[in-house]
Amino acid sequence: MPNKYIAIPIALVAVTLLSGAFLMSSYSFADDSAVDNVNITVPVSCSIEGTGMNTHNANIINGTYQADIGTTTMKAVCNDNEGFSIYANGYTGNTLGNNKLIGSNTNEEIVTGTATSTPNPDISNWAMKLSTISSPTPTYPLTIDSDTNGSFTSYHVVPSTYTKVAHRDSGTDIGTEATGSTLTTTYAAYMSKTQAADTYSGQVIYTLVHPASHAAPTTSVSLDTATTLQDVTYCSGDLLEGQVYTLTDSRDNIAYHVARLADGNCWMLDNLALDPTDSVTATNMNTSNTNATTEAITNLLNGGSTTTGWSSVAVTDVDLDFDSYTAPMINNASKDTLVTSYGLAAINGQAKVGIYYNYCAASVGTYCYDEEHGLDVPDTLIDASQDLCPANWRMPTMGAGGEYNGLFSAYSTTQDATDADSLQYNLSTPLSGYYQEYNAYGQNLWGAWWSSSYHDNWNTNGFYGYMHYLDVTPDTVFEEYDYSRNNGLTIRCLLDN
């Protein structure tokens, strides 16, 4: 095939003669080009939201079954074609994996089930059910899933772990097609004839996971994804050391600063300010949100237990002498007092004292002196296993290998509270002092925090009455101190990882 050529016309150039010289204009064209690229990325965006989420209310007479208690419509939207799954999990008492209903006054629990009177008519239970829309016909319908307990299209046991309840393998939600991913949920309950009168409450959390092939979410929740202290289940190693988060205590909605520190543990950076003498707080306290058993909480709030021998005096505030190993006592008068503080959570160099607790109160009445028998309760030297910290949190241990010692070792290079590498700075230690008899001492001079560890110091009264505590000043840290349990110290809580 002959080559094709493109004929280029030649233009005549006008030449002007000036002073005997020719001046010619010449032009050159480069072979380079500048290409300006424009790239616009639309990120994957998935969401789930519900309407009618507060409509699940019913009055059920004992011995009665009721179905279809309120309806929530959930709309799941995802602009990616890889589908998604929806998982459900019980979330009662602000704790993932708790699928019971809890009585607001009695703290009695109702188990999950299929909401029928069989096989045991004496056991109350509750259940959940899901359905998809059928009209208008969805473009990309959801599939309701099943597990070993049956299909979620019928009343089904509320899961205690993240369980897939619905999924869609493909289909991109664009515009009005998003209506194709709609799910409804409702509940049923059976109340036995012996069920105590009360208002019972629980929650179910629904979580969208993308893509549909992705593994199920876990119940592990760290500081960066939690809302309340009780939500947190582990101290993630991915957290930036010293990054401060703010979480609330579900018992009284007081906010606390928290952070993962150099020892690898997650710590509260504020002193505990839980006041069991407050009637609302006392009503909210239960074993699902407090590091204590139901029996211990009940005994504390009711003033003691005759079976264990400790005092019948109820939790008391500043009006009584703190000089007691027997009665659980607190001082709430200093709760909002601002004192000198250091570190991550200090605001303008000050922080609130919080509440002073004697050890009987700090241990929720489980570590008190029995004057009648001359014994501790418990009657052996052991660490305190219960305390007023939120669920999943506890008082730190002390002594060799204890958490206070580990934290001290992580910051032992300096004991200057103004130094960002000191324990005082990172634990955000307010110089909150302590409480003894009728007065607070040492405010703005030193701080003192109970541990869960006993000290085998024989007291002149004839019993072991001392516990370890952490003591700090602006330029010293005493991680092995001990003090009499009848005094009021503050509490700092550690995540029980």
List the helices and strands and how they pair.
Layout: E1 17-18, E2 21-22, E3 46-51, E4 64-78, E5 84-90, E6 101-103, E7 109-112, E8 125-132, E9 143-144, E10 146-147, E11 150-151, E12 163-168, E13 182-191, E14 200-201, E15 204-209, E16 245-248, E17 255-260, E18 266-268, H1 279-284, H2 294-302, E19 330-331, E20 338-340, E21 350-352, E22 356-357, H3 359-362, E23 368-370, E24 375-377, E25 393-394, H4 403-410, H5 423-426, E26 434-436, E27 439-441, E28 447-458, E29 464-473, E30 476-484, E31 494-495
Parallel strand pairs: 7-8
Antiparallel strand pairs: 1-2, 3-4, 4-13, 5-12, 5-15, 6-7, 6-14, 8-13, 9-12, 10-11, 16-17, 17-18, 19-22, 20-21, 23-24, 25-31, 26-27, 28-29, 29-30
Compact description:
The protein has 497 residues and is mainly beta.
Radius of gyration: 33 Å
Number of strand segments:
31
Largest sheet descriptor: 7 strands, mixed
What spatial order of strands do you see in the largest sheet? Answer: 3-4-13-8-7-6-14
Strand content: 25-35%
- Summed up, the helix count is 5
Give the overall average pLDDT: 81
Query: What is the count of distinct domains?
Result: 2
- Structural class by sheet pairing and helices: mainly beta
Low-confidence stretches: 1-25, 304-320
Our measurement of the CA-to-CA distance between the termini, rounded to an integer number of angstroms, reads 81 Å
Helix percentage range: under 10%
Global morphology: flat
Outline the structure in words.
- The protein contains five helices and 31 strands.
- It has 497 residues and is mainly beta.
- Mean pLDDT is 81; it is low at 1-25 and 304-320.
